[in-house]
Amino acid sequence: MAGLLLSPTEKVFILHGVQDDYRSDGRSNIDYRPMELETDVVSHASGSARLRLANTDILVGVKTEIDVPKPDKPDCGKLEFFVDCSANATPEFEGRGGEQLANSISNMMQKAYHSSQAFNLKQLCIFEGKQCWKLYIDILILECGGNLCDAVSLAVKAALFNTRIPFVKAALMDGGNIDLQLSDDPYDSKLLDVGSAPLLVTLCKIGDKCVVDPSAEEENCSVISLIVGLTGDRKYYYPKDADKQQSVESKCTTIGMNGPGSVAPKTLKDAINQGIVAAKSLDEALGQALLKERQQNIGIKKHSYGFLK
Amino acid sequence: MPGPDLLSSQGLRLDGRRPNELRRIRCKLGVFTQPDGSAYLEQGNTKVLAAVYGPHQASKSKSTTEGVVVNCQYSMATFSTGERKNRPRGDRKSQEMSLHLRQALTAAIKTELYPRSQIDIYVEVLQADGGAYCAGVNAASLALIDAGIPLRAYACACSASMAWRNGEPEPLLDVGHVEEAAGGVVLTVASLPNTGSIALLEMSHRLHMDYFKVVLSRAMQGCRDIEIILDKAVRDHLAEGWTKQDVVTI
Predict the structure, then answer these.
(1) Euclidean distance between CA atoms A169 and A128, whole angstroms
(2) Cα–Cα distance measured from residue B137 to residue B174, given in angstroms and rounded to the nearest whole number
C-alpha cells in the first residue's frame, strides 16, 4: 500500500500473530473489520452507496443510459465499470497516478460480473436486438486503508441493489428506429435483481496462512494475495420468495493473483475454501443490512447522513 | 437580459429563496484519517470533499526559496453531474478550476512561512448543483484549518447573479444550477472577508458596468455570511476536541 513503511520487527510481529490466528487488531484470520454502509447518497445517480471499511472509503454511483445491444447478445444489457482513484486518498494518485490500480480493479470487477450466473444481464433488455440499458458503475476511491477489492465489490452490490430503472411508458416504431418514452415519476421504476451478484474476497498469504480483509500493514507483509470472486445467494436479499428457490452453492466467477510470490496448489485450494466461507457470511450480512435500511425508509424521504456523521 | 424569469412577482427565486439568501451550508472537518487535513462541505445539493497534504518537501523542480508551492487539483466524480462525465479530471474546465483554486488559496495561506515546501490541496466534487467552485474553495479553507496551516484569513467564495424585479435590478446570491443554466451573468468572487480583499474574481456573460457594483457587493456580503458559518463549524469542531487523525490504528 502506498506510503507505508514497516520495519522487519513489525513484520515478524504481524506474521506470528497470523500463525496463532490472532491478528494485531484482535481479529481472527476470517474476520472482517467493522463496516459502515449507506445507500442512496448521491441524488444525481440512479443508485448509489457509500461504504467505509475501517479506513477504506468507497463511493459508488450507478448511472443509466440507453444503448444498442451487442449483435452477438441481442437480449442482454451492458455493464461498464469505471474506477477513479481520487487524489484525496494519497498524493500519488494525482493526475494519472492512480490509473494502473484503477484499471486492475475495474478489470477484476468486469470479469467477476461477466458470468451469466453472477448477474443476469437479460433484466436490462428493453427491445431485443434494438435497445437495452447500459449501466455505468462509477467507483470513487476516497481513502485507501487496505482491502480495496472487497470494499469495492460490496459497495457495488449495495449500489446495484439501490438502483432504480425507469419503466418504459410507450415505444413508437418508426421504420427501424424506436422512440422510447420513459416514465418521469421517480417511483414508477423497477429494482434490479442483484441477489447473485458476486463479491470479491481478497485472501492475503502471510507466512503459510491466509487472512481475509488485510489491513494496509498486513498487505505490506504478504508477498502474494489471491482475489476470489464468488456469487451471492438470492435468499439473503429476497427473503419473501425464499421458499421457491433452493439454496444455491456459491460459484467462483473469477480468480486473480496479485504480487510477486507464488502459492502451492494445496494452499490455493485451502484459500479458496476459506474465501467461500468468508464470502457467505459477508453476503448474508450485506443482505441483512440492505433489507434493514430499505425497511426503515419505506414511505418516508430518506435522511441522508453522507459524510456529516 | 434573461432576468424576469429568475424572480417571481413575490420576489422569490426558482428554489424558493429570497435574493439575498444562501443555500443551506452543512460542513464537517476531519472526515478522513490519511490526509493531514480534510473537510466535507454541502451547499444545497452541491457536495464537495477537500483533502490537504503537507506542508512537505517540494520536488526539486518546483521548490522555491520564497515560499511554499501550493498545488491544487480539482476533480469531479463521473456521476456528479446530470449527464455522466467521461473523465473526472484533466479536461479543460477542471484544469481551469485547479488554477483558480490555487489563485484563491495562495492568497489566504501564509506562504512565506514554508520555503522549499509544498502543500497539496485536492478537491473532489461529489455532486454538482451550481457553485461547485465556491463550495470547493470553502471546503479547502476548512481542510487547511484542519491541517493546521497558518492562514491570513478564511478564504470564502460566493457567486452572484442579476435579475430584474418590477424594473428594478436585484442581485441574486449563491447561484444554483438552474439559475446558472438560465444564461444570466454569474459573478464568482473568492475573498478574504476578514481583510475585505478580493482574491479572485471571475465573470461569465455580460453585465452593464452600472450594475457591477451592486452585484459585487452582494457577492462580498455572501462571502462574509459564509465566513461566519465556517468559523462556527471550526469552533464547534475544536470544542469537540478530536479529529479522526487522532484515533490511532494498529
Answers:
(1) 17
(2) 14
Which residues on chain B are in Cβ contact (under 8 Å) with A87? 51, 73, 75, 120, 122, 124
Which ranges of chain A would DSSP assign to H, the alpha helix?
8-19, 99-114, 148-162, 216-221, 265-296
Q: Which three cell numbers stand for residue A140?
A: 470513487
Three-state DSSP at B198 gives: strand
Distances (CA, A) of B56 to A90, B68, B116: 13, 9, 9
Q: Coil, strand, or helix at residue A124?
A: helix
Tell me: domain A8-296, CATH 3.90.1150.10, correct? no
CA atoms within 13 A of residue B4's CA, in its CB half-sphere:
3
Rounded Cα distance between A150 and A203, Å, is 10
For chain A, the straight-line distance linking the first and the last C-alpha, in angstroms and rounded, comes to: 27
* A167: DSSP letter: P
Q: Residue B146 and residue A189: Cα distance in Å, rounded?
A: 43
**Residue A49, C-alpha cell as written in the block:** 452507496
Residues β-bridged to residue A56: A53
Domain ranges of chain A: 8-296
pLDDT, one tens digit for every residue, chain B (250 residues): 444 578 888 889 988 999 999 999 999 999 998 899 999 999 999 999 999 998 999 888 888 888 899 999 999 999 999 889 888 888 899 999 999 999 999 999 999 999 999 999 999 999 999 999 999 999 999 999 999 999 999 999 999 999 888 888 899 999 999 988 887 899 999 999 999 999 999 998 888 899 999 999 999 999 999 999 999 999 999 888 765 555 554 4
Q: Using alpha carbons, select from A217, A66, A239 the residue that is nearest to residue A144.
A: A217
Instruction: Look up the ipTM and state it.
Output: 0.88
Is B42 close to A308, i.e. CB distance below 8 A? yes
Beta strands A56-67; A131-143: pairing state: antiparallel
How far is the alpha carbon of A267 from chain B, nearest alpha carbon, in Å?
28
Grid cell of A24 as nine digits: 494485531
Cell numbers 482574491 correspond to B199
C-alpha cell of B81?
A: 453531474
**What domains can you pick out in chain B, each with its CATH number?**
4-246 (3.30.230.70)
**Closest CA of chain A from B73, distance in Å:** 8
